[in-house]
């Protein structure tokens, strides 16, 4: 220990011994804390409190360091045993240290110190397992990527968890065990992970920090296999016994409740059963109200449309409801997961989760950094479906698209033309293999039909499995021609007769 550090340590120890019981801080910064930036790219760091009657402390001195360089000193006379000192810090890739001294007759005694303080942006990620997967490969760490508390899954937030405060975010899981984890598979679904934000949360933080040079805090409250109901507020229950309550507790303790910029929500697989899917839209309205009431500063909700996979037999319905949600709320942005690499039937590979982050980054850059986009950054979505001829249907998308003609899996060739399904007025069940061939021209797909039967709705991709198989659907896909983002799926969209 060098002399400077030793002197600081002894000074701090002396200050605690002399004043630790004589000063009651109402507000004070913590080590590694992120302060949310305002519209001027600044944040206020406040020291305030009360001096006990027994102490003779009369004057305080605050030193502010930016990357270990002293940039400001403030002096304050204590009046009526109360004090308040405010300092402004700037958002950017630098760290601040605050040292508060008892200052008397030019003598300084260190009372309090908070180090590694940053100013930046705060976000929430939540939902079920695909919202918070950890991976051994997620080794990235940054002094500017922060989180708060313990990602708990379903366990009650206990007193030991409360001891974990601010720190460096991680996408890894030091306590995860088992052959799957050791082999490099994702996990941490039900494991307590201090400062855990998941693979794609960590990747999103990295991309934001490197691109915009602003520190990031992500607090991840995901719970594996959770339904939308389990992510609700449940005010009648003790808060730390619910997923919503544990997340809200951490955000509140981090002093970020009114400064969360956006919520990223990946959830729905567990609601893809008939009894749950019928109420999904209504339940999203409820959880959205909960979010807007508790996190009053949020500007955006980024919703991920679920990929065919584990869950019930109403996944097409959930995906279509998620489309409806994005249209119902102007501040909800939807992102597809179709075409994301490495889907294993339920979860994604390490590279797949990183793709989550790279897909959503341009939207965040547009919404919070005023980045001008020179190309389309959203997933293709169907605008209308029309009968253009007796045996011809034209699908019109919001951007130029391309298609994978086929995908070979287990020596079976799955053609894109066979991934469209239809209903008639007399038959609500999905009809298969009705398309003879198709062609693509800019933002349109033209389907040549095998017969002249009139269909009243069209769907793209099966519920979760290839027709007449038990294999989870994983392509072929419709994608944006320029951005390579998989299209949003659609289910039972009305077919309009344009003849």
Description:
The strands form seven sheets. Strands 2, 4, 5, 7, 8, 9, 11, 13, 14, 15 and 16 form an eleven-stranded mixed sheet that branches. This protein folds into three domains: 3-117, Immunoglobulins (Immunoglobulin-like, Sandwich); 121-369, 3-Layer(aba) Sandwich (Rossmann fold); 382-497, Sandwich (Immunoglobulin-like), CATH 2.60.40. The relative contact order is 0.09. It has helices at 3-19, 159-162, 179-182, 199-212, 243-253, 274-277, 280-294, 315-328, 350-369, and strands at residues 23-27, 34-36, 42-51, 59-66, 69-77, 82-90, 96-104, 107-127, 145-148, 150-151, 166-168, 193-194, 216-220, 260-266, 300-304, 332-335, 382-389, 392-397, 401-403, 406-409, 412-415, 420-423, 435-441, 444-449, 457-460, 478-480, 490-494, 496-497. Mean pLDDT is 93; it is low at 1-17. It is an alpha/beta fold. A hairpin with a 2-residue loop joins strand 20 (406-409) and strand 21. Helix 4 (199-212) packs across helix 9 (350-369).
CATH superfamily of the largest domain: SGNH hydrolase
- Unreliable segments of 5+ consecutive residues: 1-17
Radius of gyration: 27 Å
> What is the β-strand count?
28
Helical content, roughly? Answer: 10-25%
Main beta sheet strand tally, sense and closure? 11 strands, mixed
Per CATH, the class of the largest domain reads Alpha Beta
Structural class: alpha/beta
CATH architecture of the largest domain: 3-Layer(aba) Sandwich
Tell me the number of helical segments per DSSP (H or I, 4 or more residues long): 9
- Mean pLDDT metric: 93
